[in-house]
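Section 3.1 - Work completed
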Amino acid sequence: MLCKSRLFPWAKLSPFFPSCSIRTSAPLDWIHLKTRFRAVDNSTTAKQAMLAGKPPYCLTVYRAGRLGQKARRGRLGDKVLVAVKGEMRRAYIVGWKMHHKQIVHGVPRSDSNNIVLLNADGNPAGSKVLVPIPACLAATNDPTLKKIVEMADKLV
């Protein structure tokens, strides 16, 4: 999409300012409402959504916050409710595109926000995770997350 010369008069003057490099908002440090994900399991719903160019996006984060309220911000290993192909599904966050100020020692940073979709009964929808997932997820007590770690070919 080209810049309007009225809004950005310098865009036409110099070839060093292409329109694609203009950012209107700062990168955020968390997963929140309407965050887009990349489904990284081999389920049919995940494949169809990613091939159609309509990735899943976050509706709710299932995590306890402070003072008995629910948290609105998610991070690695949290369960989220996502909208994918017009239906609502639950998923786990297995990769997090962290801002450079949020880097945690021992947790690898991924290029995209990755999720693994769950069935209605709470088990993983696919039989394989297509990307490496962080090894810190193996130390959790959640049985569903342990199944996801076992499905992965590689831990980082």
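Second construct:
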Amino acid sequence: MSRSTTTAKAPRDTPAQGRGQKAASAGDRPSTAARWGAEAFGTFLLVFGGVGTALYASAFPDDGNATGVGFLGVALAFGLTVMAGVAAVGGVSGGHFNPAVSVGLAFAGRIGWREVPGYVVAQLVGGILGSSALALIAADGPAGYLASAQDAGFASNGYGDASPGGFGLAAALLIEVILTAVFVTVILAVTGQKAYAAVAPIVIGLTLTLIHLISIPVSNTSVNPARSIAAAVYGGPVALGQVWAFIVAPLVGAAIAGFAHRALTR
């Protein structure tokens, strides 16, 4: 498992590029529009695949049916979608699909700060398009399906009564900071050398799967503000009221990871 016609300065490396590669010249880089489009597509895929699995398949057709994919299936869905997205368009944009990843890479010096706002906007647009597509599909489902999904929070992140396991705000904040820091650290490590380029999508996807297995019971797993906002848009007032935690905590975790990586690799 993050965004004028003048092309921004090429980053030293991103999730799809290794430190051993020569930096591409400005003329060789994909256009700004292409990079933003790739980020929007990847975030759309992440939300549509991950949140969609949580909405439609986690307990299909009801909580008592053993054919539902459960927490494991949802965790795999998020991991597989980010793996597919990085493999598909990582070479265009770097494959962030997550504002926290973009911020973490900027703190680490992997991308310029001036690239971050455009990436984040693209990620938010892609994520909301993904959740909107899921809402449209649910609206044509069995009677009351969309309303039921919204009443249940639309797979939003939460704490307290909105936490799958009833965990409080402090637990949700702590686990999101820790796991986002872990996620960004893995991304920085696995994309730091050209030799790892072929396995980077797999490692990143499996790391996101593990993160979900750990934290779904606590916070329903964010580590991605775009994913959290996209679900909260359709999750009702409780989800919207709590989404701040899943913006702040991942960004803090990403900043810690990026700053630490830069300090330790100077």
